[in-house]
Design goal:
alpha/beta, 8 helices
């Protein structure tokens, strides 16, 4: 059975890094990074949030099609609203696939520090996200997301939690692999 593996968590906790490694080490797995897809929308730099809203239905369609016809999908995406998370879960289940939900958690102050220091130039949207967070309230917004994500995990008992510590990506990756295996063995 094919699987949609959601890597959820605060910005900067390693979702994309771990997803890229997972896809590299699991040939045939689709890495569906909605932030990358967002950059395919004309004007994405001018209205980053609207570009995200526009691309999300396409991402859902691509995920469902890939799960039905081709293989596993890994999705690194901050989803803090149950209604949004359930859209991806429904896409997986409707495609006859398994939905594996993993929350990458970090100590909140560490996550805030990591958010501010990330930007190796690989992802052109990082400066835009940093600006949007600053405009919305800065570090308080990130702390609010941390609280919301903890509440989300409490409401979704099948969510696997993996600790993500700065400069310990290998350990977090190994824990993600274990979480994927554990989820597969219980379903």
């Amino acid at each position: 059975m094919n699987r949609l593996i959601l890597l959820n968590g605060l910005p900067g906790v390693g979702k994309s890094t771990i997803a890229r490694r997972y896809a590299t080490e699991h040939p045939g797995t689709l890495l569906c990074d909605v932030d990358v897809l967002r950059t395919f929308i004309g004007g994405w730099r001018d209205d980053f949030e609207k570009a995200g809203a526009r691309i999300r239905p396409a991402a859902l369609g691509m995920i469902a099609g890939y799960l039905r016809e081709s293989g596993d999908v890994v999705l690194p995406q901050l989803l803090a609203r149950v209604s949004e998370l359930e859209k991806f879960e429904r896409a997986a289940l409707d495609a006859g696939a398994e939905f594996i939900e993993i929350m990458l958690e970090a100590e909140t102050d560490d996550a805030v520090r990591r958010f501010h220091r990330r930007d190796d130039g690989t992802d052109p949207w990082h400066p835009i996200v940093r600006s949007l967070v600053a405009e919305a309230g800065g570090d308080d917004v990130l702390r609010d997301y941390a609280v919301r994500l903890r509440g989300l995990v409490a409401r979704r008992p099948r969510t696997r939690t993996v600790m993500s510590v700065a400069d310990a990506t290998d350990a977090a990756y190994r824990d993600v692999l274990e979480a994927v295996d554990a989820a597969a063995s219980t379903d």
